[in-house]
Amino acid sequence: MRSVIAFFMLLPLVYREGGIRAMRTSILPSHIGRNVAHYVGQFAWLMGLTMIPLAQVIAIEFTAPIWVALMAAAFLGERLTWRKCMAILFGLAGVLLIVRPGSVPLDPGHLVVLGAAFVFAISFIMTKALTRSDSATKIIFWMLIIQSVIGLVPALKVWIWPSAAVWPWIFLIAFSGTFAHFCMAKALSYAEATLVMPMDYLRVPLSALLGYLLYTETIDGFTALGAALVLAGNLFNLRRPNGVRRSCPSL
Q1: Handedness of CA 87, 89, 94, 99 (dihedral sign)
Q2: Taking the domains of the chain in order of start, what are their residue ranges?
Q3: What's the pTM value of the predicted model, to 2 decimals?
């Protein structure tokens, strides 16, 4: 439903770039591969929510920027400067401080979410590769079409029409989820994946802030310190992204 609804939301941008005909692409197999990976990642992430606590899901999911950095170096030829490495490590430390996952025995859910993070990283790397020839609008256009097709069969097996009260939330998810992907694709078209992905850690402190503003959830000292580490790492990374390159310490 998110993909189908968001398709119509994207149409103004599609027509701004020349209409449906302008969305033709010569690398359709790459678009399909990217969206299969993303769909698998989403499915595994949602499955993980049913198996382990949310805090652990979030902590494991945010290993994705580390996988992205390693894959970008291996497959896209990007360099891991010491600033990028510090941004990754600061972000990971900040996330762990915020969610503070407890030490529990290994659960199959941990492996499921770790797999989701790894597949998400593959999706991000493929998105970066797609930006070399296709615009962000074209990437999201094909994402919505391909994921609508992929999701249709499993959805029909369990389909129940949402109640009237749920529809506004579905439209909100369609808008925010889709244009978050648009912003990510646009960012990847301007900068290296190893520069963009550490900023994804900002979702954690921003979620804490929204929880405080909308649901009066308390922001404790650990959350504040973790948010500070996330922000510090990204500001440090952005200050001189093209500065002197050094070899990256072992992660």
Answers
A1: positive
A2: 2-92+101-154+167-197
A3: 0.77
